[in-house]
Write a structure and sequence with these properties.
Largest interface: A-B, 31 and 32 residues
Number of strands of chain A: 7
Strand order of the largest sheet of chain A: 4-1-5-6-7
Distance between the termini of chain B: 23 Å
Oligomer: heterodimer
Number of strands of chain B: 5
Strand content of chain B: 15-25%
Number of helices of chain A: 3
Strand order of the largest sheet of chain B: 2-1-3-4-5
Order of helices and strands of chain A: EEEHEEEHHE
Structural class of chain B: alpha+beta
Radius of gyration of chain B: 14 Å
Strand content of chain A: 15-25%
Number of helices of chain B: 3
Largest sheet of chain A: 5 strands, mixed
Chain lengths: 135, 134
């Protein structure tokens, strides 16, 4: 049973420094790297899904963490070359949480710094005003 | 049809240089909520549930709102001025409600929403989300 989904934007453009024409799109590779990290973990709880555009655009790479009855978190400024482990750790903490709000001390640095936005869970019994937890 | 939920962040300080100990009730986010509530009451709020949110974490680009519905994409909108953009927020919520996947046609969206969409997220259990426009 999947308890959380990692949405990875595959449209993000990462500048390679020489002007507008010089960019790559590391999102697809990031999807594969995360999938590889999750392999053989016996972790049925996490799913990874490529998305054609999370509409953030200016903060590559961007992901979203979602789950039923959980707040959704959008996290950007992620480095696909060095932060895959942090992304997976963040997703695991998220999946294990009741409502998607991971305690600050359990958030890897890239999660702490990179939150773009968060949205309350949609399901009935919406709780838009958490009594605990930082943003 | 499933209810469309319109969240307005009531803790947003927006772009105003408010005092740190400013009462919550006068924060720009709270004012935006009130303006949106008025607009919905005046125009009709059928199918749209307005929910105050305790921080959407879009703090550098407040004020903020989000539109969600079960089975649809969620949109987060920022840089909202409580005095100017309540109508745009409500208009976008109606468009979202009317669209099967919650992805209104680009040309129909209020200009502020086109330019200040912070992010969008697929539904938790995606069916066949359209991917050709964001």
């Amino acid at each position: 049973m999947t308890t959380a989904t990692i949405f990875v934007c595959v449209s993000c453009r990462r500048s390679l420094g020489d002007g507008e024409e010089s960019f790559d799109q590391p999102g697809r590779g990031l999807v594969e790297a995360i999938e590889a990290r999750l392999q053989g973990d016996g972790h049925g709880r996490l799913a990874v899904t490529a998305v054609d555009c999370l509409a953030v655009c200016k903060r590559p790479c961007t992901i979203a963490l979602s789950g039923t009855n959980k707040w959704t978190y959008l996290i950007g400024d992620l480095d696909p070359d060095s932060q895959v482990d942090e992304i997976v750790a963040a997703a695991r903490s998220f999946a294990a949480s009741d409502n998607g709000i991971v305690p600050w001390r359990e958030r890897p640095p890239s999660f702490r710094k990179g939150v773009i936005a968060r949205v309350p869970p949609v399901a009935g019994g919406v709780s838009a005003a958490p009594t605990t937890g930082l943003t | 049809m499933t209810t469309t939920i319109l969240y307005v962040c009531v803790t947003c300080r927006g772009n105003e240089a408010g005092a740190p100990d400013e009462p919550a009730a006068v924060r720009p986010g709270a004012r935006l909520l009130a303006a949106v509530e008025q607009r919905l009451a005046a125009e009709g709020d059928k199918g749209i549930a307005l929910v105050p949110a305790n921080c959407l974490s879009n703090c550098p680009r407040g004020c903020s709102a989000a539109v969600s519905a079960s089975g649809k994409w969620t949109y987060v909108i920022g840089d909202l001025d409580p005095d100017r953009h309540a109508g745009d927020v409500v208009d976008f919520a109606r468009l979202h409600r009317a669209h099967e996947h919650g992805v209104p046609e680009w040309r129909d969206r209020p200009e502020h929403v086109r330019k200040h969409t912070i992010a969008r997220v697929p539904p938790v259990k995606p069916a066949a989300p359209p991917q050709e426009q964001s």
